[in-house]
Amino acid sequence: MDDTTLEDITAIADPVERAHAAGLAMAAQQDLVAGLARLRREAVAEARASGVRQEAIARRLGVTPGRVSQMRPAGAREAVDGPAGPPRGPRVVVRRALPTEPAVRGSASLFMTEADRQGIRAGRRMLYVGPEPASGHVAAALRVEPGTEVLARRKLLLADDVPVRIATSFFRLDLFGGTPIAAPDFVRPSLQAGIEALGHRFGHAEEHLVARPPAGAEAGTLQLDPGEWVVQVLRAGYGDDGTPVHTLETICAASRHVFPIAQVTGADEF
Fold first, then answer.
1. What 3-state DSSP class applies to 139?
2. pLDDT digits (tens, 9 = 90+) for 11-42
3. Is residue 253 a contact partner of residue 222, using CB atoms and an 8 Å limit?
4. Residues 6 or more apart in contact with residue 150 via CB below 8 angstroms
5. What's the start-to-end Cα distance of the chain, in Å?
6. Is the dihedral of CA 97, 214, 210, 184 positive or negative?
7. 12-21 contact pairs (CB < 8 A, 24+)
8. Strand partners for 171
9. Do residues 25 and 1 lie in contact, with contact meaning Cβ atoms separated by under 8 Å?
10. Which long-range contacts (CB under 8 A, 24 or more apart) does 263-268 make?
């Protein structure tokens, strides 16, 4: 975003309109970042195809050779210096239990706990925190009209430095606007604790799983190959009084996941 655009948004008098404009600009920046990542992958592939070795590229970019090996255009097999080896499978495979075990759901980070149990090096990066219009399925879960502004907390989850999920928590602004849940960066000590601190107690949850082609910037953000699908897991959590509290939409790279299904016993949490 250039300074003029930032100044224009800052000058908007109405705070809600200012927040809306900032959210739209941040979403546009996410698309820009995804596009730049694609251009970088294509440029690295072009350099390697011309004979520049992986180690030399890594030195120029200031990254490790292993990171360069992950920079490949969608649809291209990962190049190697030297004779071609046998076809490789998915770069990483992680497990996403359905439904989530309560002890994992209540931990500081569901994904970090899952990954640690699987011996995978986990990482996460916050992509966006702010208002955005609710899509149809999110609106239904939060019991608002489609297009209603809701609070979104979107992060990218990585396993061994490979992007595997885009996880977005959605909250109603009339319940969570202006609270610590709306603050940027991660909620400490956990999102679950932050929800409970505001007086909400878990009642029940519903999870819906849908397999579909990627939409919007999902393919670029997750570095998906052409034709690769995603699995969308939507978990709607409700308070003990029936209030729609937390809707979590997780977009999983289909080829990098397995989904164990088990009967969960014991107390559940948002």
1. helix
2. 888 877 777 777 667 666 655 666 677 787 78
3. yes
4. 131, 132, 133, 134, 138, 139, 142, 144, 170, 171, 172, 173
5. 35
6. positive
7. 16/149, 19/130, 19/131, 20/131, 20/149
8. 151
9. yes
10. 264/99, 264/100, 264/101, 264/102, 266/102, 266/103, 267/102, 267/202, 268/99, 268/102, 268/105, 268/202, 268/204, 268/205
Is the domain spanning 94-258 CATH 3.40.1410.10? The answer is: yes
In whole angstroms, what is the distance from residue 140 CA to residue 149 CA?
13
- Tell me the C-alpha distance between 134 and 174, whole Å: 14
Torsion of CA 57, 62, 67, 73, to 10 degrees: -50
pTM score, whole prediction = 0.64
The amino acid at 98? L
Cα(41)–Cα(52) distance, integer angstroms: 14
Q: Tokens for 1, please give them.
A: 């975003």
CA distance 226 to 223: 10
Domain ranges of the chain: 3-70, 94-258
Indicate the range of 103-112, 124-133, 204-213, 257-266 predicted with least confidence.
103-112
Separation of alpha carbons 244 and 237, rounded Å: 6
